[in-house]
Amino acid sequence: MNYFKKIGTANVLMLILCAVIILVAEYLFLTGYQMHGLFVGLWAPTLLGVMIYLKLVDNGSK
Transmembrane ranges (predicted)? Predict the structure, then answer.
């Protein structure tokens, strides 16, 4: 639990959101909606990239 406090509530929620996005993309891909699955699957790395960028900007201002 101490680890979750260290990384922050917002980051934990964003990581959970990324996991849900990946599961939805896999479901779409495997049920025959391959193009929709690929499109939704690209949201997770984009979201993670934005999280990294915001963390770098925040650390640079300190």
Answer: 12-30, 36-54
